[in-house]
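Render Arrestin domain-containing protein 2 in 3D.
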Amino acid sequence: MPTRLEIVLSNSSDGIFYPGQELIGDVNAVLSKTCNVSRLRLTISGVGKTTWYEQYSGRGATTFKGKERYLYSELMLFQPFNEKSMEIPAGTYSHGFACQLPDTLPASFEGKRGHIRYFLKATLEQPWRQSKTTSLNFQIVRQLDLNNEILLPVRSELTKSLGYWPCVPSGVLYASVELPTSGFVPGQFIPAVIQVNNKGSNKITRIVTMLVQKITYAARRPKLTEKVERFIVCKNVTPGITLPEGGVLAAENLQVPWVLPTSSFSRVVQIGYELVVEFEIDSCFFNANQVIRVPVVIGVIPTRDSNMMESNAIRVWTRKA
């Protein structure tokens, strides 16, 4: 049996760690015969990378790349004293290690245009021979505590004149979305108060309320630039309303499913969320739909005064007095 290396984590059977936690384990070296060993070292790394391509007319494709290192530590587990190498008899040898993880590590992430990964790599160096290596991935999970965030009621408004050439102007749409707080956790309901005042003849065919995940990838080469991806996490669809010269008040409760928490600890990959309310309008103009976006924070630990965990998903539509 040839020389074999193995990394074993002793304080996490599933390879999941939290920022600030200690990484503890052993590197086991199995030598099938007597070997000259120069040293045995262990590196602990955390890196974020982004890559995507942009097609430009007449210039071909340009590759954008970004990279950020969050963690790098090298531990020397074995090295002969005052000698370049040492003869080690056949057998199994175990070398323990421990490393304190920084508090600022971003969570592990895998995306279409980038990732954040953490891994350990053990290297057994021998003179005049190719080094033996082995690696082991581990994950970082961040528990975003909403009690440590500044969360305030939020309100976003929209005023839009409807009707464009060749259409005849058909009125003005006033709309607003209001939330009692800007922070939520999976399992809670987002109680959005949607107010609509449609001063015109256009019919709102339906109103779609969505929780959207916003992933921002950043690149530094060949120039500083960003690429944003949006994914609909969940949504509610409300039938249309016709309210010429009238108003409506809506209470939409959108339940947050399990998703990655909001993350801004990385410069190359950031995760955010927004509540998006889209008003689909029956109009001859092909892009008449109107959208209101409200940024929200998705955490893991709810606020201590939160009373929304037991809410029921209801929809109540009432005409505004």
